[in-house]
Amino acid sequence: MPDVGLREWFAVGRAIASGSLLRYDSGASRTALFEREMAAQTGAAHVLAVNSGTSALVAALAAAGIGPGDEVLVPAYTWMATAAAPVQVGAVPILVDIDETLTMDPEDIRAKITPYTRAIIPVHMVNAPCDMDAIMAIAKEHGLIVIEDSSQAVGIRYKDRHCGAIGDLGVFSFNRMKNMNIGEGGAVLTSDERYFIRARSYHDLGSMVRQHGDRLNEPEFVGMNMKVTEMDGAMLRVQLKKVVPMLRRMQKRRAVLADILQHSSEFRVTPHNDPASAVSLSILAPTREKAIELTGRRGVHNRLRDSSKHLYTNWEPILNKRTFHPKMNPWAWAKRDIEYTPDMCARTLEILDRTCIVTLGMRYPTPLMAMVARKLAGQR
């Protein structure tokens, strides 16, 4: 992630000194400028800053009209928010296996579609893009809405298109673990005017005032308060300038290390849906036991099976279909019985059992990390 330092400190200080701390205060401009700048950078017609990536997912689903009785396809490997967001709008998540790219398997997407499926949420995990060509083709064939969860892929490209700006809607996260970091924050992206107006309304309690004049005859509806402050907007403008140079450095480093690791006889480099623009690096061991052994070596960050709430078997509230109140339980409104079991996505578990993340070591010289990679690959 980009460092947070003096540039952010000065930007926030100027926002505070302006006296306009709320984004809709008279004279406020920082958040709106960030939204325009991110739209220009990604190619999306509209960007809406919100207070978290989870809020962005919920607002995107609400904007698309997803609700009770609807089924939403989500990957079995992602942060739990991807599966929880449909529940917040009254829909139910349907779990889809990943393939070796660590993203949604298009063939399992096809297998999980029912007459009640309304949307797909592909997740670009650990900076690795999904096979968006296949996913968009499936969505078009079945009349489904695509909401890209690009929380872990801010600034990443898929075949010269920005992740998050390919589907009908996309979402970003800006928490401290992401490619842009303001502590906590998010954004909704779309090029559909109606979806944007609905998302903007939903994030501001359904208000059609506050400079929201272009409503396209969209009636007011009750929403939430997901707004950001001008201090958030100020930090985001600084972080936006840092993300592309950071990813370029990561791409160069990844290419060097992957070229070394691909010659190993003990494992293979994880396949990628767009190798030319890859910035993430992981390896796939032949067995679970080998992967566990690899985690003890220098240069290996962790085994993905140990990824806590990123793995569906640890989503206790989802597996148990438990909400804060029994009468607000979307599974009771579903048009068929939905059951979850710990082994329902066995292929996902098997792949994560054998996959290890390789650190790029961006704080260290490239020759040093190349030496680490050669040792990891069994080369002298």
TrEMBL record:
Stored SUPFAM superfamilies: PLP-dependent transferases
Record-linked InterPro entries: DegT/StrS_aminotransferase (IPR000653), PyrdxlP-dep_Trfase (IPR015424), PyrdxlP-dep_Trfase_major (IPR015421), PyrdxlP-dep_Trfase_small (IPR015422)
Assigned keywords, A-Z: Aminotransferase, Pyridoxal phosphate, Transferase
Pfam family, one: DegT_DnrJ_EryC1
CDD domains, per the entry: AHBA_syn
Positions of post-translational N6-(pyridoxal phosphate)lysine modification: 178
Active site annotation, chain numbering: 178 (proton acceptor)
MF GO annotations: pyridoxal phosphate binding; transaminase activity
Keyword Transferase carried by entry: yes
Stored Gene3D superfamilies: Aspartate Aminotransferase, domain 1, Type I PLP-dependent aspartate aminotransferase-like (Major domain)
Biological processes per GO annotation: polysaccharide biosynthetic process
PANTHER family: DTDP-4-AMINO-4,6-DIDEOXYGALACTOSE TRANSAMINASE, TRANSAMINASE
Family: Belongs to the DegT/DnrJ/EryC1 family.
Protein name: DegT/DnrJ/EryC1/StrS family aminotransferase
Lineage: Bacteria, Pseudomonadati, Pseudomonadota, Alphaproteobacteria, Rhodobacterales
